[in-house]
Amino acid sequence: MGTLSRWERTLERWESALLDKVFRSDPVQLLDALRRECDDHAVVCSESRVLVPNVYTVELVGFVHDELVGRRGELGQELTDVLDRHAEANGYEWAGPLTVHVTKVRHLPAGRYRVVSNARTHGIAPAHAGAVHPWA
User: Fold this and answer.
1) I want to staple 19 with a disulfide (CB 3.0 to 4.6 A). Which of 2, 5, 27, 108 is the partner?
2) What residue stretches are annotated with the FhaA N-terminal domain (predicted)?
3) pTM
4) DSSP 8-state assignment for residue 23
5) Are 96 and 49 in contact (CB under 8 A)?
């Protein structure tokens, strides 16, 4: 039990460090947007089965992308881990293999990032398909 608790605390510290690097002014916005995208597109199939999209694309404005991905090449994997823990905590089932793609865009009309989700059986993210929700 002690090993599991230490592991959870370590993951929480990593998540906190990631949040601090993402947006210093409001560090929880990006992860909240990912979780909200997951929750908003959950489909209740039965009493014991709730499906959620499995492919997420996080679009970052150029300077934000350069800063985050340049220093932390594993950003997509860290965001994937956060979503995986969120789904496990809520009893969600992925529609296919879970992936989070981090992409660079020139301009976003409403801010510094946008989260797009899709349900794909093979985990391949199409360019700008699915529901688009800007979070500024």
Assistant:
1) 27
2) 4-115
3) 0.68
4) -
5) no
